[in-house]
């Protein structure tokens, strides 16, 4: 027996098998059960959503030996003929190739004949909007007063092209684009039945690529099962269907977030060298930025995004890189790029210039946030001084009392104007994110070394965990408690924050943590004895001289000689 493609092999044969069109199938089942049938139906919706399939099931429901029934038996001669496409009572007409008035006149002559074996003569006209105006006029009279044994079912992807006179004489059913979750579930079901192994992330990529069409999703699955062999992975889908690897988007956003123009342009070159189509990459970039925006603002982002858990985890890592305002501006830049790519100009040049605009984009700062920072009290974070977020001297009480007279209002506005002038002349307002700090941390350590080699050495052992609201969280490993005690001393915090402000050209705060799960790298020499574990806290508590020495030179205990030596 010849191979049957999956889209045909798994074509639904019952109303309940139609994927995600319950609003249509339930109405049709109830209409058949109650014998409240129309002489004309108009099924409209995107391609591959089940319009023609539903028309055939309705034809079976009307002509089944047990019918009219909402559950045709699929075993009687009438059902089997309709399934095989050989029924003389169910005629499928392609309007794209039968557009003329003569074709419709022939149809009008044939509708007078009674069914040969079934109970109804069913005419299924696919892509009905392709009929000419004169053909629609010729069909109108028959549709208005059809013989009782005739049912017309029209299918179209463009219902607005069907004349109103035709639409008003039919019952219209709108087939919806199938969402990613329902499509993914259907792909898994078919893959399991065919014993095709496919990874979870690959299922979602395939479902999104199908763009709501069940038929397309099964066609892709058919193609990929031949391409991949035993197991389908995301890499197979990217290679077989020419999609853009998600890692490109992650790498691109990392470079843009770090404001690293050379690295951003390097990613663009990598894209071009890989043969990626720039318009397709641009469309995917818009979707990537949308995902970050949804993660920031939705209560249940995974339900909206309809992506796998691993994809959500990747998006989550980048969701704090930008503010909502930044993301909205970035989406505007990329959507403008998408339009510009149609202009005929050099697409690579357009992508490179848009990339530089994204990498050089200044962070969004709301005026109300500036006012709030001018008046906020000390929050106790390490590095807190008598200056505000912008490095300006705090003015306690300047905004605490609401003005009650015009003179007081004038004073308030004068204070605000003065503060604005100080901001413009002082440290710039610039928000940093994790990639920006991580990318430049080694260079900052070298910068700090000029001020304090000791602090530079200690911070070199720390890792940057988080950057949020211009507060850097640095972590030491589980043996770094003493290092944390040293760098948290007020005079050293002041030195570090001053160096941060000088290097990053904005006001930053820093706090330190110890991660007990992290272990320092250990170099083991063969046959060498294990290093002796030292309880530094106990050692300092028992030895007053040692404690005084450590405090005077701001040192750290890293080992001790054995007593017998």
Q: Helical proportion?
A: 40-55%
Please provide the count of β strands: 10
**Count of all domains:** 5
Classification by helices and strands: alpha/beta
Largest sheet data: 5 strands, parallel
Using the alpha-carbon principal axes, give the shape.
elongated
Tell me the CATH topology of the largest domain: Rossmann fold
Distance between the termini: 87 Å
Low-confidence stretches: 378-405, 412-424, 521-531, 561-565
The CATH fourth-level homologous superfamily of the largest domain? P-loop containing nucleotide triphosphate hydrolases
Biggest sheet strand order reads 2-3-4-1-5
Count the DSSP helices: 26
Strand content: 5-15%
For the record, the CATH architecture of the largest domain stands as 3-Layer(aba) Sandwich
**What is the CATH level 1 assignment of the largest domain?**
Alpha Beta
Q: From the structure provided, what is the oligomeric state, counting identical versus distinct chains?
A: single chain
Protein model, in words:
Helices cover 52% and strands 9% of the residues. The chain is an alpha/beta fold. It folds into 5 domains: 6-174, Rossmann fold (3-Layer(aba) Sandwich), CATH 3.40.50; 180-241, Helicase, Ruva Protein, domain 3; 246-359, Zinc Finger, Delta Prime, domain 3 (Up-down Bundle); 434-514, DnaA, N-terminal domain (GMP Synthetase, Chain A, domain 3, 2-Layer Sandwich), CATH 3.30.300; 531-560, no CATH class. The strands form 3 sheets. It has a 5-stranded parallel beta sheet with strand order 2-3-4-1-5, covered by helices on one side. It starts with 5 loop residues before the first helix and ends in a 12-residue tail after the last helix.
């Amino acid at each position: 027996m010849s191979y049957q493609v999956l889209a045909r092999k798994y074509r639904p044969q019952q109303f309940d098998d139609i994927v995600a069109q319950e609003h249509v199938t339930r109405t049709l089942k109830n209409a058949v059960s109650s014998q409240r049938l129309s002489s004309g139906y108009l099924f409209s919706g995107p391609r591959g959503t089940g319009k023609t399939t539903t028309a055939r099931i309705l034809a079976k429901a009307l002509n089944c030996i047990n019918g009219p029934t909402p559950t045709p038996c699929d075993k009687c001669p009438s059902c089997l003929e309709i399934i095989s496409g050989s029924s003389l009572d169910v005629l499928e007409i392609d309007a794209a190739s039968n557009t003329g008035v003569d074709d419709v006149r022939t149809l009008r002559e044939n509708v007078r004949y009674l069914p040969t074996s079934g109970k109804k003569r069913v005419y299924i006209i696919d892509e009905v909007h392709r009929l000419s105006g004169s053909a629609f006029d010729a069909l109108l009279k028959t549709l208005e007063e059809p013989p009782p044994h005739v049912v017309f079912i029209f299918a179209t992807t463009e219902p607005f092209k069907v004349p109103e006179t035709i639409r008003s004489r039919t019952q219209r059913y709108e087939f919806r684009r199938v969402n990613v979750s329902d499509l993914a579930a259907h792909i898994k079901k078919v893959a399991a039945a065919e014993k095709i192994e496919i990874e979870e992330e690959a299922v979602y990529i395939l479902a999104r690529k199908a763009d709501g069409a069940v038929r397309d999703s099964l066609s892709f699955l058919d193609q990929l099962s031949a391409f991949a062999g035993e197991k389908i992975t995301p890499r197979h889908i990217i290679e077989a269907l020419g999609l853009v690897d998600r890692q490109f988007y992650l790498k691109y956003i990392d470079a843009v977030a770090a404001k690293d123009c050379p690295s951003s342009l390097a990613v663009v070159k990598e894209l071009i060298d890989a043969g990626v189509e720039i318009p397709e990459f641009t469309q995917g970039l818009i979707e990537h930025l949308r995902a970050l925006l949804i993660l920031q603002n939705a209560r249940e982002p995974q339900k909206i995004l309809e992506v796998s858990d691993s994809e959500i985890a990747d998006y989550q890592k980048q969701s704090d890189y930008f503010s909502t305002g930044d993301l909205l501006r970035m989406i505007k830049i990329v959507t403008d790029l998408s339009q510009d790519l149609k202009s005929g100009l050099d697409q690579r040049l357009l992508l490179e210039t848009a990339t530089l605009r994204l990498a050089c984009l200044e962070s969004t700062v709301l005026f109300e946030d500036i006012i709030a920072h001018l008046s906020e009290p000390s929050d106790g974070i390490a590095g807190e001084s008598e200056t505000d977020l912008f490095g300006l001297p705090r003015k306690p009480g300047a905004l605490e009392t609401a003005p009650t007279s015009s003179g007081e209002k004038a004073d308030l506005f004068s204070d605000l104007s003065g503060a604005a002038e100080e901001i413009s002349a002082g440290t710039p307002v610039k928000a940093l994110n994790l990639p920006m700090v991580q990318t430049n941390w080694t260079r900052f350590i070298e910068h700090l070394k000029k001020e304090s080699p000791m602090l530079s050495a200690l911070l070199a052992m720390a890792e940057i965990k988080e950057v949020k609201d211009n507060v850097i969280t640095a972590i030491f490993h589980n043996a770094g408690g003493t290092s944390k005690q040293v760098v948290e001393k007020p005079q050293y915090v002041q030195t570090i924050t001053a160096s941060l402000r000088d290097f990053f050209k904005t006001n930053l705060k820093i706090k330190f943590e110890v991660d007990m799960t992290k272990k320092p790298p250990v170099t083991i020499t063969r046959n060498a004895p294990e290093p002796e574990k030292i309880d530094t806290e106990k050692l300092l508590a028992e030895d007053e001289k040692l404690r005084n020495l450590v405090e005077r030179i701001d040192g750290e205990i890293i080992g001790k000689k054995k007593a017998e030596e």
